[in-house]
Amino acid sequence: METATTLVDVAAKRLAEAIVTGELAQGQKLNEAELAERFGMGRGPLREALRRLEGQRLVSRIPNAGVRVIILDRKRLEDLYAVREALEGMACRLAAEQMTESEVLQLQDLLAQHETQIEKDGGMVYSQSESDLDFHFLIARGSRNAMVMSLLSGEHFQLLRMCRYRTSRNAQRPRPALTQHRQIVEAIAQHDGELAELLMRRHIRGAWQSIRALIDAEELSASVPRKENS
Amino acid sequence: METATTLVDVAAKRLAEAIVTGELAQGQKLNEAELAERFGMGRGPLREALRRLEGQRLVSRIPNAGVRVIILDRKRLEDLYAVREALEGMACRLAAEQMTESEVLQLQDLLAQHETQIEKDGGMVYSQSESDLDFHFLIARGSRNAMVMSLLSGEHFQLLRMCRYRTSRNAQRPRPALTQHRQIVEAIAQHDGELAELLMRRHIRGAWQSIRALIDAEELSASVPRKENS
DNA sequence: AGCGGATATATTGTCGACAAAATTGCAATA
DNA sequence: TATTGCAATTTTGTCGACAATATATCCGCT
What we know:
Two copies of one chain form a homodimer.
Chain A: H1 7-21, E1 29-30, H2 32-39, H3 43-55, E2 59-62, E3 66-69, H4 74-98, H5 101-120, H6 125-142, H7 146-167, H8 174-189, H9 193-221
Antiparallel strand pairs in A: 1-3, 2-3
Helix pairs in contact in A: 1-3, 1-7, 2-3, 4-6, 4-7, 4-9, 5-6, 5-8, 6-7, 8-9
The structure holds a DNA duplex (30 and 30 nucleotides).
């Protein structure tokens, strides 16, 4: 196949991937001509892709001065997790109230997969992290709220992956997360919305605490404040 | 002054305005060449503006088939208000906990303005509705959460204005809303986060109930189900 | 030697033209 | 008359070139 979709889609996807994985460093200025060259396309499609990423808040544009990759600092992550707690908490309550039995089964299947996966290769945290997002998305879908789904699978998804890549060299915590997932699924299976919301909020808050600790430690180790302006 | 900003900004602003006010009907297909002609610019900037609006969910694009104005149906509004309840409830709690005294004063000033305005011209609901959003944005700013602020002042803002234009020919309810606003400000002034969140959530839920009633009545009157496909 | 300004370079913003795809309209056939 | 296939037209997707703006370089001056 040549180009299944449009060039803008290709560019947006590759750019997002490069930003998320850190291939394009945070705060780095992006050169349109160079990127267009690298992707083998004109500047037009690339600019449109950048505009889309702008909407997803992966880059920010200063008129006549180009676009830069966002800087995912502590404050931004804190804001993101606050938003997630509110949004996914709500979604989890709605999901518990509305999910069909087959959807609950799907969720339990996913959970079982995670369990065996963690059982087998106890350290393979990366894939767990990736499919942790599947778990959250499945629940968002259960809420029947298209806006939450699109936020979670769009900009939140990218920012969370970006955060993981940033903190992945340090240890994760798959086991407590799995336990919490199990509790959440159980509450959903019993259609207990109130409990499901509470558990999900606690789960996300716990994740933030864990990430915050990592970031603080990281910032402490890199405490030599060398200027990196312009 | 000629063009204070870039053409893309101009196009995006005019398009958003046209969509919000209904000048461009919901579901209508947008012709790039025609719009570029109308705005006196090339198709390039216009396309980029459309991509930005795509990010704000004011239009949706189908590859090789053009962009269409979103349809703000009942379901979409219901989703929006659920998101608002969760998000602004959270923001209101944070605002109550973190706002400075001068910020609280600002809020009280705004409230007083609304009171005198409603006192004077009891029916002038439009401006009230517009500045109702100021009220909500001031609180979002008090939360110190940039993500909430940007959501509220970006896509939520536009969608809410769009909703108002759609239901403005019917009666609004400025007085109960004002009372609720007063309660919320009081809770914030006392830095009672829990109460502030509860009141804000109730306020938004109430607004949704009111709007839902309007929409249902409207859909009932236009109950002749004529097909409007393609 | 340090600073200010002017020139040169690089990068973004915009336009017009061409290619590819989809839609429309027509006509021929069952 | 309905339907299917083909052709013409419209519309989107993409590219390359030019204009406007910002950034970097270098030279003269105090």
